[in-house]
Amino acid sequence: MPNSVSWIEDGRLVTDFLTDEIRHEVCREDGTLHRLYQALSSWPSAIPPVHKFYQAILHAPDAPLDLNSAEFVATHVTILKNCTYARAHHGANYCATASDRTRAKAELEVLERDNLQSDLLSDRQRAVAVYTRKLTREPQIMIRADIYGCPRSD
Description:
Distance between the termini: 31 Å
CATH class of the largest domain: Mainly Alpha
Number of domains: 2
InterPro entries: AhpD-like (IPR029032)
């Protein structure tokens, strides 16, 4: 798995296509813009709603999973769906939010090999990974017990 994906630089600055208001809402503290939002640079009015959706799904304080666990799930889905772009970015986010980045990278390698019985995964991670795999590959066989049996963040 590559560490990054190709990105076409168009030479424009964020200030060339975003208003001050949108820039303040969606740019990182260092003034950079997430690549997902850069992809929408020709349609800047779409960036704030996409940002709000992203924040609501992965950063909500009442979300059933903490940010690191949500990135674990997102990365696993991208592995299962073979999406190199999303795998690179969710994988980087998972590692960046982990307390031990080296271990996080090894955990993602376990997911890449579909070795969910690996000792590298905690029991909780394993249960979440099994749930994620079933929901992604065979959603038609999901049952209520799958949903209520999946661990949530503490």
